[in-house]
Amino acid sequence: MTSYTWWPVLGAPMEDGLKRVLAHDFLRGLSDGTLPREAFGYFVIQDTLYLGEYARALALLAAKAPSGAAGTLAAHAGSAIATELGLHPALLEQAGLDPALLHTTPKSPATTAYTSYLLSVCAQRPFHEGLAAVLPCYWIYQQVGMALATSGSSDPVYERWIESYAAPDFARSVAEMLQVVDDTVRELSDRQATDMAEHVEIATRYEWMFWDAAVREERWPW
Ligand SMILES: Cc1ncc(CN)c(N)n1
């Protein structure tokens, strides 16, 4: 990471967030197999809802991107849906949960907040700010996948989830996005780089909140 131009500018808020994420009960439970199936199912369903909006956010960014990055972002908007979403129904089934829940569950408060934030930044703010908002989504999941893969999980369903984020295919797509971030940061003023760092910090907090909502099985008050 240290070889990237963006790392000194954007690395600190994500590293801090990553420590908190790795210490969270959700990921500890995924790793040692104690995570309740209900919390995992809640996460997978909410993640499906999240990924649909996330793909839209990437498509909005693709439309604003400089020509060198537009193709990468447009391709990612498609692959976010194809690869990650492809896994979710199978994970639910393997976990003994009903995949039909994918079609009947509404977005939770945390999912609503995170996806609304991503969509508004990508639609209404300059390209570099939107890019900063989606960066933790890539970087944190890759780091989580690699960290958890060192010991794996005794639970085969959780192990399958971990493997998907420790896989070379995911690493390749993260590397593509990190390169886009690098090319972007090189062209920015200090003020613009600070704006990026603020979005990285907010999105990193949302990543933590997303796992936290799953453990609490967060619901709307009515
Ligand atoms: C909430 C969330 N953040 C990130 C990722 C990884 N694309 C994800 N699947 N879900």
Automatic annotation (TrEMBL):
* Cytoplasm listed as a keyword: no
Which reaction does this chain catalyze? Answer: thiamine + H2O = 5-(2-hydroxyethyl)-4-methylthiazole + 4-amino-5-hydroxymethyl-2-methylpyrimidine + H(+); 4-amino-5-aminomethyl-2-methylpyrimidine + H2O = 4-amino-5-hydroxymethyl-2-methylpyrimidine + NH4(+)
> Which keywords does UniProt give here?
Hydrolase, Thiamine biosynthesis
Q: Which SUPFAM superfamilies match?
A: Heme oxygenase-like
Identify the EC number(s): 3.5.99.2
Which GO-annotated molecular functions does the record name?
thiaminase activity
Pathway named in the protein's UniProt entry: Cofactor biosynthesis; thiamine diphosphate biosynthesis
Family statement drawn from the similarity comment of this UniProt entry:
Belongs to the TenA family.
Name assigned to this protein: Aminopyrimidine aminohydrolase
Organism of provenance? Flexivirga alba
Upper taxonomic classification of the species?
Answer: Bacteria, Bacillati, Actinomycetota, Actinomycetes, Micrococcales
